[in-house]
Amino acid sequence: MPDLKADVPAAIESLRMGFFPVPTLSLREPSTSYAIRGKRLRVDLLTPARRGGTAPVFIRRLNAAATPLKYLDYLIEEPIHAAMLAGSPCLVKVPQPARFALHKLIVSRERDPTVAAKKKQDILQANRLLALLREDRPGEIRLAWEAMAKRGSIWVKKVKAA
């Protein structure tokens, strides 16, 4: 992220869409998610996980807490530009599709058995995206794989297992 300051909770509130901070199971931990009652739309604030860190991390320059997510650093490295067409079109940065697919596979191996449906959804999304990329952009899969493999054999084992 650029070295900018922002008030994320205030920005979300300014949308006037009815977002509210989703309470955590622990009253000691700050919320890292915002939702709208009765809707599936949700905003989750994430940050790359550091060794052993699972508790929300307060990011002062954003005035908000974020959930550490394993392997996020790989996903957000070298983003691409895309057009967001909802409302007024604008240019946004998004993860590379091949990295997104491989990340889904890795994360599926990390999911707790209590969220089997999410694990299944991760694998399905990754497989669909990889099938599309195999047809249209096979070189991107190779580059994403090489970048992932450089991070260690554990990463490779998780993707292969998924």
Explain this structure.
- This protein has 162 residues and is α+β, with helices and mostly antiparallel strands.
- The chain folds into 2 domains: 8-69, no CATH class; 74-161, no CATH class.
- The chain is built from 6 helices and 8 strands; from the N terminus they run αββββββαββαααα.
- The strands form 3 sheets. Strands 1-2-3 form a 3-stranded antiparallel beta sheet, covered by helices on one side.
- Helix 3 crosses helix 5, helix 3 packs across helix 6 (153-161) and helix 4 packs across helix 5 (138-149).
- The protein is globular, with a radius of gyration of 17 Å.
- The model has no long low-confidence stretch (mean pLDDT 91).
Identify low-pLDDT runs: none
Structural class: alpha+beta
**Morphology call:** globular
What is the gyration radius calculated from CA atoms? 17 Å
Major sheet summary line = 3 strands, antiparallel
Question: How many angstroms separate the termini?
Answer: 30 Å
| SSE sequence, one letter per element | HEEEEEEHEEHHHH
Instruction: List how many beta strands DSSP finds.
Output: 8
Give the rounded overall mean pLDDT: 91
Strand arrangement, major sheet: 1-2-3
Strand content: 15-25%
